[in-house]
Design a protein that fits this description.
The protein is an alpha/beta fold. It is 40% helix and 16% strand. The protein binds pyridoxal-5'-phosphate. The site of pyridoxal-5'-phosphate has 12 residues, from helix 3.
């Protein structure tokens, strides 16, 4: 199968498997696992922050970051389509005890900065919650993985800090953003007070995410991790893969993300030629007409088929290709480690055949 449902489907590289089998281990809740400690130091160094914490997933990373920044009854400002708003089972409310004020988002994933400035609550008004956090998502998933620029991140941080509120970045695909923008992770993280990034997506590790920030913040997040049952023991066995991912040199998996971006663009260029397939609309844009490959700047391709979506996906699957239903009737394909240009060419050919098959049999269009 060529599995483009997500970059989470990647399997660890041979260098990761070797490192995992040889990892030195200890009990991480006691702070005794040397491999985890090395990974946390490396993540902090890469993002230019004081400390880092290894957690089980991106969702747990965002949750413990919120626990580290917020008190009960406070409010986070985040984009309306953000993962922390709609894809984390309202953990902010259930576990952290906070609300989220949702910002309208533009097709490039950004917010109007005047609207952001306006979104902070008045701390003197007894009726209102207290604004306690601003959370960006970079890359921004629903806009087809647009990377938010360093300049924009700086502007958002400046406004947040003027209101004495920290900035968290949900960087599930933070290094995709950095690579696409041509800046270092350290530069892109500089304006933020904390960043979560996933090892288990484009970086090809089997498990894990990192939360980085100040020493004090990470100490609070570490307490939060224990609260949600995320204190793991000889977890160096998986942290070892993260150390390989974040290493310099040929075994590291950050620099190679550029290949995923080129492959996503190649796929979009192929799909854009096809009759019966069109732009996703919404944040993924443009509203009508063909898919615009120029908007594919990281590893997401989001589009719409004019005929039956499920029939198209079934026809693709019958040809050995997996894509996934995405929001508002769209389809998402995500490139990643293990998918090369030849695989993309097979996907393009199979998509053309699947479109032909699903339109020839008169499958009714879904509304
Ligand atoms: C933007 C974003 N944030 C957070 C997450 C959560 O990551 P995980 O699946 O590791 O919990 C995801 C997962 O897809 C994501 O896309």
């Amino acid at each position: 199968m060529i599995d483009l449902r997500s970059d989470t489907v990647t399997h660890p590289t041979p260098a990761m498997r070797k490192a995992m089998s040889e990892a030195e281990l200890g009990d991480d809740v006691f702070g005794d696992d040397p491999t985890v400690n090395a990974l946390e130091e490396r993540a902090a160094e890469l993002l230019g922050k004081e400390a880092a914490l290894f957690v089980a997933s991106g969702t747990m990373g965002n949750l413990v970051a919120q626990l580290g920044h917020l008190g009960r009854g406070q409010e986070t400002i985040a984009g309306a389509s953000a993962h922390i708003v709609s894809d984390e089972q309202a953990g902010h409310a259930v576990v952290v005890g906070t609300s989220i004020r949702q910002m309208p988002e533009r097709p490039d994933g950004t917010w109007d900065l005047a609207e952001l400035d306006d979104a902070f609550r008045d701390p003197r008004d007894l009726h209102e919650p207290i604004s306690g956090l601003v959370a960006l998502e970079n890359t921004h998933a629903h806009s087809m993985g647009q990377p938010l620029s360093l300049e924009y991140t700086r502007q958002v941080a400046e406004i947040a800090h003027a209101h004495r509120v920290p900035l968290h970045v949900d960087g599930a695909r933070f290094f995709n953003a950095a690579i696409a923008l041509g800046v270092s992770g350290r530069e892109l993280a500089a304006p933020a007070d904390s960043v979560t990034f996933c090892l288990s997506k484009g970086l090809a590790c089997p498990i894990g995410s990192m939360v980085v920030g100040s020493r004090d913040f990470v100490a609070r997040a570490r307490r939060g991790r224990k609260l949600v049952g995320g204190g793991m023991r000889q977890v160096g066995v998986v942290a070892a893969a993260g150390l390989v991912a974040l290493s310099d040199g040929p075994d590291g998996t950050i620099a190679r993300l550029a290949e995923d971006h080129a492959n996503a663009r190649r796929l979009a260029e192929g799909l854009a030629q096809m009759d019966g397939l069109e732009s996703a609309g919404g944040l993924a844009q443009p509203a009508t007409g063909p898919l615009d490959p120029g908007r594919v700047t990281t590893n997401f391709v989001i589009f719409r088929v004019r005929r039956d979506r499920a029939a198209f996906l079934d026809a693709l699957e019958a040809r050995g290709i997996l894509m996934v239903e995405y929001t508002h009737g769209t389809i998402r394909a995500v490139t990643h480690y293990g998918i090369d240009a030849a695989a993309i060419d097979r996907v393009i050919a199979a998509s053309a055949a699947a479109l032909l098959e699903t339109s020839a049999v008169g499958v009714p269009a879904r509304t």
